[in-house]
Amino acid sequence: MGGYKQIGDKPLRDNKNRKRRITVGFRVSPEQHDELYKRIHLSGRKIQDFMLQSGLHQQIVVVGNERLRQRIIERLEVLEPKLEEIAKGHPDDDNVLTELRIIYECTKTWE
Questions:
Q1: Is 33 helix (H, G, I), strand (E, B) or coil?
Q2: Which pTM does this prediction carry?
Q3: Positive or negative, the Cα torsion across 88, 94, 95, 99?
Q4: Dihedrals φ, ψ of 17, to 5°?
Q5: Among 109, 97, 107, 98, which Cα is nearest to 71's?
Q6: What is the pLDDT of residues 32-47, one digit of tens each?
Q7: pLDDT at residue 58 is higher than 60
Q8: What is the pLDDT of residue 14?
Q9: Distances 92 to 41, 48, 89, 102 between C-alpha atoms, Å
Q10: How far apart are the first and last CA of the chain?
Q11: Are 55 and 101 in contact (CB under 8 A)?
């Protein structure tokens, strides 16, 4: 990751030519801040790259409840027609498979 370039008046783009304009922030205690930055420093990565990799590729333990279960069911009902199109060999949206992978990973670690 990395390799962001300003091209004239165009927004910053990464090495895959994606625009990155959204900022994500959260609050931590001083102790959490110290531990987090020690981990970042030891990883040899930039802060943004470390946070992206940690957030997107580390296993997260999901604390399930009835409301979350219902949200997942509702989302799967929306995805069902799209899955039927994929099964027929007519995929129209690669994001469906990505979303299914995310749902699967979350339910796999359900507590």
A1: helix
A2: 0.54
A3: positive
A4: 65, 30
A5: 107
A6: 999 999 999 998 999 9
A7: yes
A8: 65
A9: 42, 32, 9, 19
A10: 33
A11: no
109: confidence class by pLDDT, cuts 50, 70, 90: confident
What's at 23, amino acid-wise?
T
What CA–CA distance (Å, rounded) separates 5 from 35?
Answer: 31
pLDDT tier, 1 (very low <50, low <70, confident <90, very high otherwise): very low
Length of the chain: 111
Instruction: Point out which residues pair with 19 in neighbouring strands.
Output: 13
Q: Please give the DSSP secondary-structure letter assigned to residue 34.
A: H
Distance CA 107, CA 100 (A): 11
50 C-beta neighbours (distance < 10 Å), count = 19
Tokens 């997942």 — which residue?
72
Q: Determine the Cα–Cα distance for residues 45 and 2; give it in Å rounded to an integer.
A: 10
